[in-house]
Amino acid sequence: MPPAHACPDGPRAPHRAAQLTYEYTLFAPGDATAPKVCRDFVRTVLRTLDREPLVMPATLCTSELVTNVHLHTKGSAMLRLRLTPVRLRLTVFDENPDPPVVTHPAVGAVACWGRGLALVQDMADTWGVADERAGRYAKGVWFELEAAAEGGTESFRPRRIG
To answer: If residue 79 lies in a helix (H) or strand (E), which one and from where to where?
Structure first.
């Protein structure tokens, strides 16, 4: 019989205490490597914290927001990730104060760009522009995804896009 304090999924590593909220910040340079670096960072955090169902929508939305920073601003980006048992909130801050513009290309139209925020709008549970500044960063565009506690799979509900 296991001890009364045993974790149902096995013993927890002594260096990894249970937390209710995880917060991470990443600064990315204003160059073409930023989207991949930020995607890899988000993927690593979510997999490390056993939140696999959030990996695909979170990395896709992150990539779109960081790519917008690279395409439409001259500066760097700051990514802030906050994960609670019920929600993932990711904000990408940049140095341009202008609000982002959502475009919806015509159905069947072929375009190489211009669909990023529409994709975030379709994938995320909610998204918007942060009211607060963060140091030298003039605005933050954020999205939220519902997250199931303890890494459950019921949190991600696939949505039809388009």
So the answer is: strand 77-83
DSSP-derived secondary structure for 36-60: HHHHHHHHHHHHHTT-GGGHHHHHH
According to DSSP, the residues that pair with 139 across neighbouring strands are 94
Q: For residue 38, how far is the Cα from the chain centroid?
A: 9
SS3 track for 105-141 = CCCCCCCCCCCHHHHHHHHCCEEEECCCCECCECEEE
5-18 confidence digits (pLDDT tens): 555 555 555 555 56
- Residue 4, pLDDT above cutoff 60: no
pTM for the full model? Answer: 0.74
